[in-house]
Fold:
Amino acid sequence: MALQCRLSGATIQSLKTATIPISSSSSRLIFRPIPKTLNLALFSRHSPPKAPPFTLLIRTLSAPAVTVAPAIEISENKVVKPQWKAAIDFKWIRDNKEAVAVNIKNRNSNANLELVLQLYDKMLNLQKEVERLRGEKNTVANKMKGKLETSERQRLIEEGKNLKEALMTLEEDLIKLRDELQLEAHCIPNMTHPDVPIGGEESSKLRNMVGSSRKFDFPVKDHLQIGKELDLFDFDAAAEVSGSKFYYLKNEAVMLEMGLVNWTMTEVTKRGFTPLTTPEIVRSSVVEKCGFQPRGENTQVYSIEDSDQCLIGTAEIPVGGIHMDSIVAESSLPLKYVAFSHCFRTEAGAAGTASRPAESDLYHEELIKIEEDLFQSLGLHYKTLDMATGDLGAPAYRKFDVEAWMPGLKRYGEISSASNCTDYQSRRLGIRYRPSETSSATSKKGKASLATTKFVHTLNATACAVPRMLVCLLENFQQEDGSVIIPYPLRPFMGGIELISPKFR
Structure:
């Protein structure tokens, strides 16, 4: 598993950060250090979307999150009780069954749509029966208010008792059915932007290519060899202390890491992002609401034994939770955060953002531009990809990845990503805003009614995944004499260091 530190910027949208393992070969099940990362996050209001997919998504996945009792273990004839409930538009899912089914297939999701629809229909029928019995029970209660013969009153008492018992049984069944429906519906992924390519990662579409790979007139080294020769890493000591794949950073590598963090934070805050450091332990329910599976079979999340808490795998999670179950003022939107945290996960890290439906595409472009501007200012050769459906996580409506050329590894490697999650997370986290305009309807007292609240959109992107940036910088700026040039923008944040030179000749 990996320990990551990230800096991310958020407009309650969050920017996800991903890290490249220091070793070119790594196993998902092996602990490895994932350093610091800066994540961007953004929250913004949404007005009625212009494109149908936004409208459909908002209706389908919007619902206030409600805290409920802790989960119950599965046993015979019992259903696990969800820790929270999302307001999902099941009617829309039923009415758009074909589109939802295609989306589930394109995203390689294991969601069971047929079961969700069966449970929904069953719930509707049970609700009708419950309402019928409640009506009969009220009728009996009203009859008993008048003068009655003793025999008639006794008959009504018995009838009321029977109705009460039957109603209690049906209400218990309804609660269990709703819980089962929620658990199954949580597996349904977000809808997908119409321009996203369909297929696996290989089907992803090139959006942008910046620069060209550097031509070397000497043998190229990878970051491991460079780090060893410049006395920047210590894997041996870390293996004794922590296990395989961990490392100590030493000497100028420490200054470079700190320089990357402070440079990124400075650049992003200039763009109106509020800096944050976040808690590194959160409740499991918050992790789930952000679209992660803290206790699944293939989870990348570290859970704390005998508790309902987890270590964060990305700053996206605590940033997303900062406005959980709240209504933010429309005048305060968009809310932008740049968050710095360690990230504990078996793989790479992430960050997130949020915005209004009609604006979230624009904010998505803003986030990816921030990332590209940072990487371009360092002189990196990179490409930006519009990731295919098979590479999207459940919350993502669309995701852009940035891959930089790493000459020592002789390949491109992901250094950043930016995802638009629309209202998938906010409808689970319960993050809403109230439009400033009042409703056309009036209350009984003649006063204008408040406008109906709406859910914000969340986005996420990685401002700086420190380990991957270290790999990029060491490999791209190596010199024939073994030294490494520090890119100009980072020098003021490294005490003026311009060059990392060999310490032993």
